[in-house]
Amino acid sequence: MRIGVVQLNSSDNPKANLQTTQDLIEKAALDGAEFIVTPEVTNIVSGDRAHQSITLQTQENDITLRAICAQAKNLEVWVLIGSLALLGGSNGRFLNRSFLINPTGEIAATYDKIHMFDAMISDTESYAESSGYQPGDRAVVTQTDFGTVGLSICYDIRFPQLYRDLAQAGAQIIFVPSAFTQQTGADHLQVLLRARAIETGCFIVAPCQTGTHPTQTAKVRNTYGHSMVIDPWGQVLLDAGVSQGISVLDLDLTLVEKARQRIPALQHDREYKKPKNV
Ligand SMILES: O=C(O)CNC(=O)[C@H](CS)NC(=O)CCC(=O)C(=O)O
């Protein structure tokens, strides 16, 4: 299975981001990628909710979704749009939704980010994703031509039970499209991704947003980059650094079974009483 990992420096202009994304998807396909993945919020990185409200579309009208479905069909490749920010959540909120698109250009699965990034990571940097986005409540595993895949997004990586559930439902590859902050990315991203790979015996594939994101507003956002691919034994197969662009590599899915035969921890869960502080 040849995978293409797209790393983006998305702006707050969806049209421009679509052009860049399509150019990079095409480049990955020309390099032989059969399954191409893009980061969280491929269509817009913005720190300004008002700007997002007047710029974003519903799923039905979204230009990025429509164009990339057509492109997947044209190139005959699988595409995971790591996520799109869309109108359509409850109480006027946005959705942070992944789309898995098959080589006939149809939507094979969607996933709404479950865990919302509400965090104060320093005196000057805080996030309140739950006030802007409606969270999902459904974990997703689905079949592809290459194997069984599980979907997740960014901050979900901090909730190991989700990954255990995906793996125990049959996932062999789990995607973690992300827009990590620079600080938490540097301090935590690689170790979190490797831990999830080791715990689940899955490939972990994390296409990421990177750099200082171009904006027409006053609110500048920076992300960490370093898109990564980790094998089921926890080895780092790819660290894409900080440049926008593509990385293409081959995944040997037989490594999933091999890792799980060596350490069958996925089958060793036991029931126990929750701890009480006494
Ligand atoms: O709001 C958007 O545009 C899209 N969503 C994001 O960028 C989200 C919420 S702000 N970012 C993360 O989840 C980063 C998590 C992270 O960095 C960590 O867990 O340390």
UniProtKB/TrEMBL annotation:
SUPFAM superfamilies: Carbon-nitrogen hydrolase (SSF56317). It holds the Pfam family CN_hydrolase. The keyword Hydrolase applies. The keyword Hydrolase applies. This is Amidohydrolase. Belongs to the carbon-nitrogen hydrolase superfamily. NIT1/NIT2 family. Keywords: Hydrolase. It comes from the Bacteria. PROSITE patterns: CN_HYDROLASE, UPF0012. CDD domains: nit. Residues 1-253 form the CN hydrolase domain. PANTHER family: DEAMINATED GLUTATHIONE AMIDASE, NITRILASE-RELATED. GO terms for molecular function: hydrolase activity, acting on carbon-nitrogen (but not peptide) bonds, in linear amides.
